[in-house]
Structure formats: C-alpha cells, structure tokens
Amino acid sequence: MGRIISLPELKQKVKILKSEGRTIAFTNGCFDIIHPGHLKVIKDAKRGADILVVGINSDSSIKKIKGKTRPIMPESARAHIIASIEGVDFVTIFKEKTPLKLIKAIKPNILVKGSDWNNSNIVGSNIVRKYGGKIKIVKLLGSFSTTNIIRSVLKKHGCK
Fold first, then answer.
1. Can you say whether the dihedral through the CA atoms of 105, 116, 89, 1 is positive or negative?
2. Which residue ranges form the domains of the chain, and what is each CATH number?
C-alpha cells in the first residue's frame, strides 16, 4: 500500500508538503487491536491538519513495552488497517520504544496524543514546542483499551 512508507521516504514527502505550506500532524501508538478509541484519536488528529502521519510501534518495540505476549496482530496487519482509515495520509513503523527519532526527523506542526498522556510526559513535546509546533490532546472515548479488551476476552473464555 502506497501510504505505508519508510522513514527516509516519509522525510522526503514531508519536506515537499511543508514547502507547499501544508500542515503536518503526527500521532503514534501500538494499535494492536483497533477499537473506537483509536479511531477517535485518529479522526481528531486529522482535524486542523492537511496531512496526518501515524507512527506504529514495530512488533519488537511492543514486546519491549508490553511484554512477550504482545503484540496480538503483526505490524504489517496493523499498518494496513491504520492506512485504510479515512484521514490517514501516511503510516510508518518505528522500531524504537518511543517515536522520538521519528518526531525529530519529520518535525510535525502538530503532535497529537490521547488524554491518557500528561502534557509534560508526551515524548517529543519539548522538541515540537521549541520549533513552534503545537501539542494537541484528544479526549479519550470511554474506557477503551487493547489491554482491557484482551482481559475481557480471556475472562469470557475462562482464562486468567
């Protein structure tokens, strides 16, 4: 799929788009089991931006963060699902635990995270603010989370 691109390709495209005066928004996550909360963050991230870039944690990155039983879905599947969502312009997969390298590389005009993140601990927020970018906090939709979905499935099937 043409919207799933490497970091070098993304850097080139973002440079061109910025030279055309386009506003770039960036959000990121594991997106392991897509739920309505993810869709709301993505939809709200696109608001006020011309281009939305979504960074997806690689499988190895998720294992480092969430443990050996995750991810549930492989990175290629997660990337294709996110790329198919209306409003998403580009998807890139990053191997690091955080998207800091990616944020430094593309310098988005708007960095978007869900309200479960405190403004002061959003990775890359200090860098984005330094060059005049904005931080956008999106109010979460209910109590949706991949971890809660996994727990619910296990409980319903008699697992611990």
1. positive
2. 7-156 (3.40.50.620)
